[in-house]
Design brief:
333 residues; alpha+beta; Ribosomal Protein S5, domain 2; 2 domains
Length: 333
């Protein structure tokens, strides 16, 4: 059984969405592939291909213990989501016994592109399929969110919603309809640069929580402003007004700086993008490394910025929006 899950960028609204304010998120046409099959014994065998910067690694779990060629840090970054997804899915869909799971990605975990959400959603979707259950994408998203909450301590519905449903979504965590589909008037291409993550999402969410607890009124104003930015950014995208969208992304980036989640290396990359003439530049995701995104009305500027980034040795690419969301495929043996 194969599952294919897109990654995502946060156009505006990360961190504020954890406090219930709106965020604008888009699935991108870079995907994670997960193969999942039932084993005749009770072992869980997980292989990761390219998901870590270091290449292929494996983990084998029996009921008593796990062994494999992974350091505790890597276990925390990748396999904790897989094992938690299996634990939660088995409670909901019934025990399937042992499993072989293979995860392939060209983008490393923790790059700020929703890799952990994609892995959680992909394992939940694959598990439910093998258990013979037909589950809607929005329900996959909400089960995968439970996985993220248990592993990270806190998680908004944004990342798991984006990777499960695909397309562009205005996420409003406090409303009954959490995900509102946004139809961009013009095709949106996004330049994405990736830097090594210096702090996990769990850590950056907790740093912002500490600041919020110390300066509640001020930080709440900042969060509210980010929420308003996301509402306006969604309108700008629907009207095809990329200039306004870019301006809103720039304001959002500077609020994220004020919240203390933008490290120097990410700021240097953002500056290269601005110098190449991109109209909107911001970090995407929890911050302290990960993804930096940029947009422009002019494709040649995106290409110019991409070339400048590649010249510095940075990992970068241009991506368009994915409208397919999570997909299932039978694997022919
Ligand atoms: C992480 O991709 C985005 C955060 O807003 C956390 C979340 O939404 O759960 C930082």
């Amino acid at each position: 059984m194969g599952i294919n899950v897109p990654l995502k960028v946060t156009i505006t609204g990360e961190h504020a969405v954890v406090y219930g304010y709106p965020a604008l998120v888009a699935a991108i046409n870079r995907r994670i592939a997960i193969k999942i099959c039932v084993r005749p014994d009770r072992e869980i065998r997980i292989t990761s291909r390219g998901v870590m910067i270091i290449g292929d690694i494996s983990l084998i779990c029996s009921e008593e213990s796990c062994r494999g060629d992974v350091s505790p840090d890597h276990v925390e970054r990748l396999f904790s989501y897989v094992l938690k997804a299996i634990e939660i899915a088995s409670k909901i869909f019934g025990d399937l016994g042992g499993l072989d799971i293979e995860i392939s990605s060209g983008v490393p975990v923790g790059s700020g592109l929703g890799t952990s959400a994609a892995i959680s959603a992909g394992v939940v979707a694959g598990y439910s399929y093998l258990a013979g259950r037909s589950v809607e994408r929005k329900d996959i998203a909400s089960i995968a969110r439970r996985v993220e909450i248990e592993v990270q301590g806190a998680a908004s519905p944004m990342d798991t919603g984006a990777v499960s449903l695909g397309g562009v979504l205005l996420v409003k965590p406090l409303e009954t309809e959490v995900f509102k589909r946004v139809e961009p008037k013009k095709a949106l291409e996004i330049l994405i640069a990736i830097t090594p993550k210096k702090r996990s999402t769990r850590e950056t969410v907790s740093m912002v929580r500490d600041l919020y607890n110390r300066r509640k009124t001020i930080v709440d104003h900042l969060m509210r402003a980010i929420g308003e930015i996301s509402e306006e950014a969604s309108k700008a995208l629907e009207e095809g007004d990329l200039k306004t969208l870019g301006e809103l992304m720039n304001i959002n980036h500077n609020i994220l700086r004020a919240l203390g989640v933008v490290d120097c290396e990410s700021e240097d990359i953002a500056e290269i993008m601005r110098t190449a003439g991109l109209e909107g530049v911001k970090i995407s995701g929890g911050g302290w490394g990960g993804a930096i995104i940029g947009i422009s009305r002019d494709r040649s500027r995106l290409e110019q910025a991409l070339n400048s980034l590649l010249e510095t040795g940075c990992t970068a690419f241009i991506s368009s929006i994915d409208f397919r969301g999570i997909e299932y495929e039978e694997i022919l043996k």
